[in-house]
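Input sequence (522 aa), recorded before submission:
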Amino acid sequence: MPTIELYDTTLRDGAQAEGISYSVQDKLRITEKLDALGLPYIEGGWPGSNPKDAEYFRRAKSLRLRSAKLVAFGSTRHAATAAKDANLNTLLKAETPIITIFGKTWDLHVREVLRVTPEENLKMIEESMAYLKRRGRRVMYDAEHFFDGYKDNPVYAVKTLQAAIAGGADTIIFCDTNGGTLPNEVYDAVKALKPQLSVQLGIHSHNDGDLAVANALAAVHAGCQQVQGVVNGYGERCGNANLVSLAGLFSTKMGAPVLPSSRLKELTETSRFVAELSNLAQAANQPFVGASAFAHKAGVHVNAVMKNPRTYEHIDPAVVGNQRRLLVSELSGRSSLVLKAKDLAIDLSKETPEAKRLLKLLQKLEHQGYHFEAAQGSLELLLKRELEHLKPFFKLEGFRVIMEKRDHKLFSEATIKVKVGKAIEQTAAEGDGPVNALDNAIRKALRRFYPTLAQMHLTDFKVRVLDEKAGTAAKVRVLIQSQDERGSWDTIGVSENVIEASWQALVDSIEYKLLKDRTKTR
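Predicted structure, token format:
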């Protein structure tokens, strides 16, 4: 396997995804994180397209990057000459050692988008590359829509590549911009053209056919040495080749160490870091790094993987910084339950009556609508309560919720009465809604007994109707996510009454916090 270089375009192509808007500070932080991962190239953006990217390149000059080289991105000239083109001169002002520009390879775009002659487009490509090359830059040429152009007019598509090389291009990148090319088509085209092209070749694939990673691998097998991609596969429309998956595949399957060996274990953390700054939840089923990538639910799977992980895991999750998870649900056997109990420091044997009873209880509750694999906090509380390993921190004596509309506004107030030991506390609180009012009231009631509750807060609240045909009498499931300075946890409640379901999840969230605090102090 020849040396493969990864080229990251998260900050440019990834930022074009719907719902993503990076601040300059976000982009600088991601740059440092990708550099720490060991990537050789980071495409920072298009400095001539918007003030944000221009500011990014100004500030990025002060970054002390250890492994990565910054790349500025732009297009071929629009002006009569390259020297007078504002876009090209702005790229030079970014002062990056490498510049990547794209040009039109598909004659359809030349005629209907650029609206210039085919000959003029070839001049635009060659002159743009030559202008940047004469000023000491390493230049890479993105052959936009290459595979579509090659299908329609292969002779002209190849001429555009030759024009870029004549202008001094160091690397030619074949782009599947529309994302509709098949892997065999990518392989055949690259294989046929490699002997005709005297420079390094690369691949930039989009995911509109769900084939971006497969197309990147096909291109590498045909002779490409550079692979462009985006962390978590973000990008316009259906996204780009997922750089995380590519790094995992090259490193663990193909004997191509595209990252330093000591950095591969940081792949999961990097993926989650970029997801967080993108304000997107990391896909649970994302290969290699997702929370479900090494999660086992079916009893047969769990039983086998605990005897030998290779039975249901293609790699050791620790290699990429991930971890194995054992899920407990109605599909689980007693092995899953026993192993989960072991994780929670609960002594439970597979053949005991307790194990059989708990498994039946879990199956019954999940049939009623509970979903414990999404609420590990409630699962731990349930097991410890049933096995009498947990004494209640407080007891509810009763609560009342009032909603009132005054002056065209809704007001919610909750009154609650709880018992802690022998002490009785009764209080009331308002909130933005009935659940918020209950949350405020119970915290107020418990504050003097458990002051650490001030450190936790609710971060997510989900309600799902389980039987839509039942209308307003339908059973609902409420999932609550809570967080403190040490982490987050999920709890669940199910009832025909949304307030009751919310109360169940809310109480579990508070009790789990108190359980964590008690365990910490031991």
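Checked by second reader. The mean pLDDT is 91.
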